[in-house]
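protien #1 (seq + structre)
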Amino acid sequence: MLFFDRAMLAMGNILFLIGLTIIIGPAKTLLFFARKQKIKGTAAFFGGLLLILMRWPLIGFCVELYGIMVLFGDFLGTIATFARNIPVVGPYIGLAVDRAGIARRNTDLPV
């Protein structure tokens, strides 16, 4: 239960937003969260952060997790492809990815 400490979760979320802003820049960060296709994920992420700050850390974390999945779900195939190349555990991750069907989600992306 110590992992659901309100202060630690809030600090982690703030550092996540700062790190994302440093990596892709402030303008692109705002555009990423303001896209019309991702409005549900943005609302869930910031709503979960608000719930954490209002002393509901478990529920806020679950709402935030949904928001992160909606916002960053498109990148799961890219992450899975990268994880396949890890030397020792890569083949096992590849089997799990093939069974879950994660890598097939990004077949239409040009990356």
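ok now protien #2
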Amino acid sequence: MSLPSNDPLPEIVSRHFEEASFLWTLRRRAIHAPHYTFTDLERLDERVEAHLDGLRIAGGAAQAVIDEALSVAGGGEIFAATVLAFDKGSADCLAPVLELARDSESGLEAFLSALSWL
């Protein structure tokens, strides 16, 4: 009889990354939309943070998802990857997002937003 694995399911980890990325993009647009209230923004922030927490808990499994996603990264992916790289304090994790941040204005905006988030 084998014991169940404590490793997170890759599908769940991917979902956390996708949701954190998407919700940050939604939040970025919401801060300029007049119909969003501070309560709406607070709810979005809580949802982003919940998915980032899921990625933090996933550890190495999250890094594998991030590494794959960065090959086609948009702003949301750069944001999430940057937050997690700084959380880890790893130069190896930070190098790819720095490279992407230098490549475009939206990448730089996402990188700076992640720093503000922290």
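The chain has six helices and no strands.
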